[in-house]
Write a structure and sequence with these properties.
The complex is a heterodimer of chains A (324) and B (335). Chain A is built from twelve helices and twelve strands. By secondary structure, chain A is an alpha/beta fold. In chain A, a hairpin with a 2-residue loop joins β9 and β10. In chain B, 31% of the residues lie in helices and 21% in strands. Chain B is globular. The chains are: A alpha/beta (324), B alpha/beta (335). The interface between A and B is large, with 69 and 76 residues. The complex binds adenosine-5'-triphosphate (2 copies), iron/sulfur cluster (2 copies) and magnesium ion (2 copies). One magnesium ion binds next to α1 of chain B.
Chain lengths: 324, 335
């Protein structure tokens, strides 16, 4: 299937406040949020992005929606370079894409009622007023919020975390987007509600031809939603494989640690020690070579000298590791 | 008991009536113990915790019951005095709780100097320690909140809550936004604080595996009330309330072959309506006519539940394991 979104060697650096020493040395340190990311999202696909906190997932999502501009590399949407989108074509792009924010408490204007929040995309897109009420109601029905009209007059802070998360989802779906980036979309929902939302997302994908990127740290959830998963570490993709493969036969040492650390709901089984120690290195000073090497149980001399490239290996895996 | 919550009632004024978000909930936190507070979205967990902390929304009020901290009933004046020093709070919205105009480091130092009486130099050293504790690089103290990722802000909020070594920590979904490795590291930090400082804690979460990993006891809420409580092992291995049984079923297992979740059909009741009897009746596969009477917490020992069919709990639990017990219409096949 043709790719809807293509990323080639995408780099994103954020400038940081310089220390006096750095100013004196004339240094310009930057946070290397993304360091050369390449992948395609096929039309109609659902792709998951997982990885350690701070590894660049949200930044990647924002780049794909043109909410920030890359420092280097290229992104195309439906064949058109995103860097060149402007005017009417940019507005058209904005109508086709939606973001579900990572933090529902930040996602809505605190001065707008819930109804206003969800109807706003319809107003902005110039949808006939007569259709508003119906479309809002059907968006709310989809996100399994019972008796939703009782929330219409409330303000965001008057809802619970999980209710808010569903409102944010309703807002994202109300226009029927073609491409959705959802950043931890169900993190605050208990399992009983979550199952319903996941079914909804699958259904929307089939009936409306939605293409989606789900950012989530929850591999169990990702397994229900996406056939393919990208694993990121410190601004790079370290493994790209079918989700079942990632879960059952992880190949990159970081992916292996991630899968081993998934908690289980059983007090007797859940206390296995973590397979890796320490924290992700600071994204201002990524280590040379493989960025996972200071935590990797298999690190060797070559890992410091040479950055491993993402290469195709067995079972549909692409892995960036010198062990392959 | 470091904390006792007794028949707590919290009402919110809304345009169309009063919402009884917490309706007679009782539970206790033994000194040095970690209690998990779980339950469906909207069942009143955050409301209960905010009431204990004395930070209810402006349209909310305590309509009944009481909160007792270290033997003393809490009123507005005592909560204000104890807040942050003795009782610390990580809000569910922790990610947006930092002030955007100050660096994260200066916010941490402010808490340490203003509320904790630290000198500036000592506060700086302590900030580095706290950042290290939650897995943040000390260089990041100079960053503004918008320069942090979501999970980094969450960890900064945890660092601020732990700054003054409180004796009770109320943490609302503290690890929800974190990947499993960082999540585990934070849970390990909390466990070591529990052991080292005898920290007591109420941990709100929807994640049963977090409860299994960290908590000693668990309190299950449904529609503003406590329906089951007891030692974690007991409650997870042998749930007595049908709602808890349903919660366990709906939990996805990473490596199971059954790509199916069995959710609990229907939704929680509208809390503005006057409610009586067991609130789980419309969704409970085991409901009987007697269930229309109020169900009270019973049980001998620490494991208690509020179900009219408590004496049949073992039979019901076996039945609950069968997905066919739960209404089929809302069992979503996921693959
Ligand atoms: N506006 C910004 N200015 C400076 N640095 C930034 C900015 N936004 C993100 N960063 C940095 O870029 C890196 C990646 O951040 P990003 O938000 O993409 O991470 P993430 O993978 O989404 O993490 P999490 O799971 O914690 O949300 C982090 O080191 C973060 O501090
Ligand atoms: N300020 C408010 N005004 C009116 N209703 C409110 C207010 N705050 C919360 N509520 C309602 O009270 C009920 C309980 O909310 P609460 O935030 O305590 O739930 P919760 O158990 O924490 O849920 P979640 O897991 O989704 O965060 C919900 O139905 C919510 O809509
Ligand atoms: S390249 Fe080396 S350090 Fe990196 S993951 Fe592979 S073995 Fe480990
Ligand atoms: S009291 Fe009745 S309706 Fe309520 S949980 Fe028990 S069996 Fe179900
Ligand atoms: Mg993020
Ligand atoms: Mg809550």
């Amino acid at each position: 299937m043709a790719a809807l979104v293509e990323l080639r060697d995408v780099v994103k650096h954020f400038p940081v406040t310089r220390t006096l020493g750095e100013i004196a040395r004339g240094a310009h340190p930057a946070v290397h949020a993304l360091d050369g990311v390449t992948f395609d999202v096929g039309d109609g696909d659902a792709v998951a992005i997982v990885g350690e906190s701070g590894c660049g997932k949200t930044t990647l999502g924002r780049l794909m929606l043109k909410l920030v501009e890359p420092t280097g590399g290229a992104i195309t949407f439906a064949g058109a370079p995103m860097a060149g989108l402007a005017g009417e074509r940019l507005r058209d792009f904005r109508r086709q894409v939606q973001l579900v924010f990572q933090n529902p408490f930040d996602a809505l204007n605190p001065r707008f009622t819930i109804y206003r929040a969800v109807v706003e995309p319809l107003i902005n897109a110039g949808i006939d007023r007569a259709e508003h009420a119906d479309r809002v109601a059907s968006a709310f029905r989809r996100v399994h919020l019972a008796d939703f009209d009782r929330y219409f007059d409330r303000y965001p802070h008057q809802l619970s975390g999980g209710q808010l998360q569903r409102v944010v989802m309703a807002r994202a779906l109300v226009l029927g987007p073609r491409f959705l980036v959802a950043d931890e979309p169900v993190s605050m929902l208990d399992v009983s509600v979550r199952a319903g939302i996941l079914a909804l997302l699958r259904e929307v994908r089939e009936t409306m031809g939605l293409t989606a990127v789900y950012i989530s740290h929850d591999l169990a959830l990702v397994r229900y939603l996406c056939e393919r998963t990208l694993v990121m570490y410190l601004g790079r993709i370290v493994e790209d494989a079918p989700t079942e493969e990632i879960v059952r036969r992880p190949r990159h040492p970081y992916t292996q640690a991630l899968v081993a650390a998934v908690p289980v709901p059983d007090p007797d089984q859940s206390r296995q020690p973590l397979p890796i120690k320490g924290n992700v290195p600071d994204a201002r000073e990524p280590p040379s070579g493989c960025s996972f090497r200071d935590r990797c149980p298999h690190a060797m001399a070559r890992c410091a000298a040479e950055t491993p490239a993402l290469r195709a290996v067995a079972g549909g895996h692409h892995v960036a590791c010198h062990l392959e | 008991m470091i904390l006792e919550v007794d028949k707590l009632q919290i009402h919110y004024r809304t345009r169309d009536g009063v919402a009884r978000a917490v309706d007679g909930a009782s539970f206790a936190v033994p000194e040095g113990r970690i209690v998990g507070l779980v339950g469906e979205s909207g069942c009143g967990k955050t409301t209960a915790v905010r009431a204990i902390m004395g930070v209810l929304a402006e349209n909310g009020r305590q309509a009944g019951g009481r909160v007792v901290f270290k033997g003393e009933p809490m009123d507005e004046a005592t909560t204000r005095k104890l807040r942050w020093r003795d009782i610390a709070y990580v809000p569910q919205s922790a990610m947006s709780s930092l002030d955007p105009v100050y660096t994260v480091g200066s916010q941490l130092i402010e808490v340490l100097t203003k509320r904790g009486g630290f000198s500036r130099a000592a506060a700086r050293t302590r900030s580095v320690e706290l950042f290290d504790l939650v897995g943040l690089n000390e260089r990041r103290l100079a960053d503004y909140p918008h320069q942090f990722s979501g999970g980094m802000r969450q960890r900064a909020a945890i660092a601020i809550a732990l700054a003054l070594e409180p004796s009770l920590l109320l943490a609302d979904e503290p690890v929800t936004a974190l990947d499993v490795i960082v999540q585990r590291q934070i849970l390990d930090v909390l466990r070591s604080l529990q052991q080292r400082l005898k920290l007591s804690m109420v941990l709100v979460t929807h994640d049963i595996s977090v409860v299994a990993y960290l908590c000693d006891e668990v309190v299950v809420m449904y529609a503003g009330q406590v329906v089951e409580s007891g030692p974690v092992r007991e409650v997870l291995a042998r749930p007595r309330h049908p709602y808890t049984m349903g919660l366990r079923n709906a939990f996805p297992d990473l490596l199971s072959d059954a790509l199916e979740l069995v959710p609990i059909a229907g939704s929680p009741p509208d809390l503005r309506e006057p409610l009586s009897g067991c609130r789980f009746v419309p969704r409970c596969p085991f409901a009987q006519p007697a269930c229309s009477l109020d169900a009270v917490m019973t049980g001998n020992g620490a494991h208690r539940s509020a179900c009219h069919r408590d004496s049949e709990a073992d039979t019901l639990r076996t039945a609950a394991l069968d997905p066919r017990t739960w209404p089929r219409s809302s069992s979503f096949a996921m693959s």
